[in-house]
Design a protein that fits this description.
Helices cover about 10% and strands about 30% of the residues. It is mostly beta strands. The strands form three sheets. An eight-stranded mixed beta sheet has the order 1-4-7-10-13-16-18-19. The mean pLDDT is about 90.
Length: about 190
């Protein structure tokens, strides 16, 4: 099993490679894939945990953590206590993840369409809108959060959900496309 010390050392190498602040409390179990254009910023809070080793997740991982900053203006901000598990965050402009948020295995968060629509080569621009995820949010395995979405504090995104619209605080979103359920009265 990968030691906590080695995970801390991996965090140091991530910080050195990206120029972000390093904290002893950051843990990178296995090395993430980091794609970063010159000028792009990765901002990591304290007590970040990133799992890129399949045996450390009950449901396994289909990939390592991927942090992709596609343009020189891109920013990925992860607040204190964020947990990542074999997921992808891809920013052309900005993805902000609030403290205490957990992002499940295989989840994908993008602030862009990845390519121009309707067809590449037609001169169309790639659509880009920032993504904002609140504090203490849970994003289930293989969920997708697409451009322009804001997810409120303490929201839950169900496994496999495709989120194309905002989700209010303390609500649950499930399905494809995701529909927002009323808050639980329990």
């Amino acid at each position: 099993m990968i030691s906590s010390f080695l995970a801390m050392v991996n965090g140091f190498f991530v910080a050195m490679r990206t120029g972000c602040a390093w904290h002893r409390s950051q843990r990178f179990y296995g090395m993430p894939i980091i794609l970063r254009k010159k000028g792009a910023r990765l901002e990591l809070g304290r007590e970040i945990t990133a799992l890129s080793v399949p045996r450390l997740n009950e449901i396994g991982l289909s990939q390592r953590v991927v942090l992709s900053m596609v343009t020189g203006e891109a920013v990925i901000h992860l607040g204190d206590g964020v947990g990542l598990s074999g997921c992808t965050l891809s920013a052309r402009r900005e993805i902000r993840v609030g403290r205490g948020t957990m992002i499940g295995s295989g989840a994908l968060i993008m602030d862009h369409d990845a390519h121009a629509l309707p067809l590449p080569g037609t001169g169309a621009e790639v659509a880009v809108k920032p993504v904002k995820i609140g504090e203490h949010v849970f994003i289930g395995a293989r969920a997708m959060v697409l451009k322009g979405v804001t997810i409120g504090d303490q929201a839950v995104i169900g496994a496999g959900a495709v989120v194309t619209r905002d989700v209010p605080a303390r609500h649950t979103a499930v399905g494809n496309p995701a529909r927002v359920l009323p808050p639980s009265t329990e």
